[in-house]
Amino acid sequence: MELDANAKLAVRELGESINKAIENSDRVADAIEVLRNLGYEPNLILKLEIGLQEIEDGEEDFHDEIELDLTDEDLRTLRRMKIKF
């Protein structure tokens, strides 16, 4: 799917917002500090993949058809990020 300029900007903003939320998280900072106190320097690499699906007329309920196979860790991460599903 080809995104227009507004959609590209919105997706970029979402990615930046998630990154900023992680950067500013006291819990993340605390966890990093614990590792440093234990003698480790953590290198955190996150991969963010954003998938979009166009909503066509009469298909506003498209989310009813999506199935997700989430692990317990996925669910915990989403909850910590205050993402509801």
Helix content: 40-55%
Q: Low-confidence spans: pLDDT under 50, at least 5 residues? A: none
Estimate what percentage of residues fall within beta strands. under 5%
| Beta strands, count | 0
What structural category arises from helix and sheet content?
mainly alpha
Order of helices and strands: HHH
Mean pLDDT over all positions = 80
Q: What is the count of structural domains?
A: 1
From the N-terminal CA to the C-terminal CA, the straight-line distance is 24 Å
Main sheet summary:
none
Tertiary shape = elongated
- The count of helical stretches stands at 3
What is the CA-based Rg, rounded?
Answer: 17 Å
Notes on the protein architecture:
This protein is mainly α and 85 residues long. The chain has one domain. It has helices spanning 5-23, 26-37, 72-80. The longest helix is centred in the N-terminal third of the chain and has 19 residues, at 5-23. The radius of gyration is 17 Å and the shape is elongated. The two termini are 24 Å apart. 0% of the residues are buried.
